[in-house]
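User: Here's a protein and a ligand (S-adenosylmethionine). What would the complex look like?
Assistant: Let me lay out the input and then the predicted complex.
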Amino acid sequence: MHGSRPREPTGRVGRDVGLSKRDIVAGTSNFFDGLGSESDSTGGGRSSVRDLLYDAERRLTAAGVPSPQADAAWLMAWVLNVPRNRLFLHDEPSPAQRMEFEKAVARRLSRVPLQHITGRAAFRRIDVAVGPGVFIPRPETELIAEAGVRVLREADGGTAVDLCSGSGAVGLSLALEAPGSTVYLVELDDAAVEWTRRNVTDFGRDLAAAGSRVEVLHADAGDVAEAGNPLSSLASCVDVVVANPPYIPDAMVPREVEVRDHDPAVALFGGDDGLDVVRRIARTAAVLLRPGGLLAVEHADVQGPDAPGGGVVGVLRSLTLDEELASMVPGVPGAPVFGSVTDRLDLAGLPRFTLATRLAG
Ligand SMILES: C[S@@+](CC[C@H](N)C(=O)[O-])C[C@H]1O[C@@H](n2cnc3c(N)ncnc32)[C@H](O)[C@@H]1O
C-alpha cells in the first residue's frame, strides 16, 4: 500500500509490461510444468536452464517483481538467444551465459524494467528498441493500433498520424500492417524522438516492402497542425489519428517502481485531471481529420465515461468548432466536431480508449 498517496490508474502503470497480448493470453503460469519437480534439481550444480530459472523465479518473487516466472524466462531466452518456447531444448548454459543471466536477474531484482535489460519491447507483430528516455509500449495500446489499422486498410493507401509516438510502436504498426499507407509520427521529447527515429530506421526495409512511408516529426502534438507548422497542409485530409498521450493526473504516484523510476515523466503526466494533452490532441485531430475520419485515444481506466465530466468521451463530445478551429477548417462555427463518440474496454474489461468520428461540420 502507498499510505496517503492516491491510487494510480491501472493499465499502463505496471501490468505485465511489454509482454505482448499473445503471451498473456497464452498464459505463463504453468511455464515450468512438466519440467520435473524441485527434487530434480542438481543440488550443488544448479546449472541447467531449469534450475537457473527456478532459482531466478524464487528470488524475483521474493523481491516482489510483478511477473517473476515470465521475466526469468524472458531473460534466459534473451541470454541464450533462443525463442522462449525453445528454452528447455537448450544445452546447459555456458559459464559466460550463466554469468550474463545472473547479471540480468540482478538488474531485474533492482527493478530495472525487463525491456530495458533486453532492449526490446514486443508490440503487435513487431518488437521495437527501447531504453532509458522512452516509454515502454504496453499491450493495451495494441487496441488503438488495431482501430487505426482497420481504417487505414479500408482507405487503401490512406494517411495516419500517431500523436505522441514515443518508440514509434503504434505508428510503425499502422504503416507495416496497412501496406501503401503514409504515417506521420509526432513526438515532443528530445530523448524519445531519438528512439522514434531509430526504430523507423530499423524498420526501413520492412516499410519499403510494405510500400508504406513514415515521417517522424519532432513537434508538439498540440500545435503541429496550426498554420505554418509541419502538418498544416494535411488539414481535413487524414484518415485516422491515433494517440496514446500522457494521461496520469499530476498528483498521482505510479505504484510500480519500474514506471515511477524508468518511464519518463513527460510520457506519464497530463495535468491536474490527466487530460491536458488529450484536450490539445482533440483540437489537432479536429483540424487534420477528413469528414468521417477516426480519432482513437487511449486513456486511464478512471477516465472512462463515468469519470467527472465524462472523461475523454466528455472532452470529445463537448468540442465545438470555435473561432480558432473555424479559421483552420471549413464548417459552421459552433457545430460539434466529433460524432459517434464511444468508449471501449481493454482485455481486462476496463475503460481504456475512446473512438470518435470527425463530423462534416
Ligand atoms: C504514454 S507515451 C506513449 C508512447 C507510444 N505512443 C506508446 O504507446 O508506447 C506518451 C508520449 O508522448 C510524448 N509527449 C508528451 N507530450 C507530448 C506533446 N505535447 N506532443 C507530442 N508528444 C508528447 C511523450 O514524450 C511520450 O513519448
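Summary: The chain is about 35% helix and 15% strand.
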